[in-house]
Design brief:
Helix content is 42%, strand content 14%. It is α/β, with parallel strands linked by helices. The protein binds iron/sulfur cluster.
């Protein structure tokens, strides 16, 4: 079955929901899944790997109640709280990201949305400076639930991507957040697409969702025709509602990456939060499970590992950073 489906995907046809379910929910071994995912990655992404990096440009004090998030006011995590960073600090973080090898730099703010016009203007100014000073670096924005007018304004700054995760399946979402809806997230993504952004949207796994929830998320993202898919794996933070969640095993994480590659053969699949802490010595396997990118440097509220170690890992595997 796995060979037949892989051959079909290599010919440019999509895996059906029934086939993906048989692969992911059935008895296909991890090694067969990874063989399929790696074959597909090599065909459509060659040996090219992309790094992205983010700055937490506004931290803490978010009124939303996402159960996994250290920045929610509903949790007591001791996370740093600060208003929107000055433009020059954002530009400095972008330079650091570029020097570390990132090809895409994300400006992320906590909170339901950036609505203050002055803040939006400041983010636009920061993006313009980055585009001017660091021309090879793509800019992504992750600013919450926004309307078309704000998105149009932000797009005019020269930012390439808008990032907004769906997090999980539509069915499971109300179990992880009660202060906004899945529909609002979908609406933001559609508005960002119509404003001209490339869309970056994925999810976080290990929240207590089932395997069918993960498949559901993968197919919703396929319907949305997202351009890149960040995959995060819960690193339970003390003080959050999910502080006692059981971390996913490396094998289960690799299965998730592989099925996302099989469902999204040509998209960019990036492994982001939870990579280092959850995968440990299995980190290099993400590429053989189908990923063609990863986040480097610090995460939003947690330190990452030395970017030089990530660079070395990719080079040691004979892969090429783009
Ligand atoms: S909206 Fe964003 S910053 Fe706020 S709690 Fe949810 S994930 Fe955290």
């Amino acid at each position: 079955m796995v060979y037949h489906i892989t051959a079909k995907i290599l010919k440019g046809r999509d895996v059906s929901c029934r086939e993906a379910s048989e692969l992911y929910l059935g008895k296909t071994s991890l090694f067969d899944l990874m063989w399929a995912a790696n074959t597909i990655r090599e065909r459509f992404k060659k040996n090219r790997i992309g790094f992205c990096s983010v700055v937490n440009a506004k931290s803490g004090l978010c009124g939303e109640d996402c159960k996994f998030c250290a920045q929610s006011v509903h949790h007591k995590t001791g996370v740093r709280r600060y208003p929107l960073m000055p433009q020059d600090e954002i530009v400095m973080a972008a330079k650091q990201a570029r020097d570390n090898g990132a090809g895409c730099f994300g400006i992320v703010t906590s909170g339901r949305a950036i609505t203050d016009k002055e803040e939006i203007m400041n983010i636009c100014r920061a993006v313009r400076k980055i585009r001017k000073k660091l021309p090879g670096l793509d800019c992504a924005l992750s600013l919450g639930i926004l309307d078309k007018a704000s998105l149009d304004m932000l797009k005019s700054s020269g930012a390439l991507r808008f990032h907004h995760n769906l997090e999980t399946s539509r069915k499971y979402f109300p179990r992880i957040c009660s202060t906004h809806s899945y529909e609002e997230r979908l609406k933001t993504l559609k508005a960002a697409r119509s404003a001209g952004f490339k869309i970056c949207s994925g999810g976080i796994f290990g929240l207590g969702e089932t395997r069918p929830d993960r498949l559901d998320l993968a197919f919703t993202l396929r319907e949305l025709k997202v351009d890149s898919i960040p995959l995060n794996f819960l690193h339970p933070i003390k003080g959050t509602a999910l502080e006692k969640a059981k971390p996913m095993s490396p094998a289960e994480i690799l299965r998730v990456i592989a099925i996302f590659r099989i469902i999204h053969p040509k998209k960019d699949i990036k492994v982001c939060g939870g990579r280092v802490v959850n995968l440990r010595r299995f980190e290099p396997m993400i590429f053989f499970a189908g990923a063609n990118g990863m986040m480097i440097g610090n995460y939003l509220t947690q330190p990452g590992q030395d970017p030089a170690a990530d660079l070395e890992m990719v080079k040691d595997l004979g892969l090429k950073i783009v």
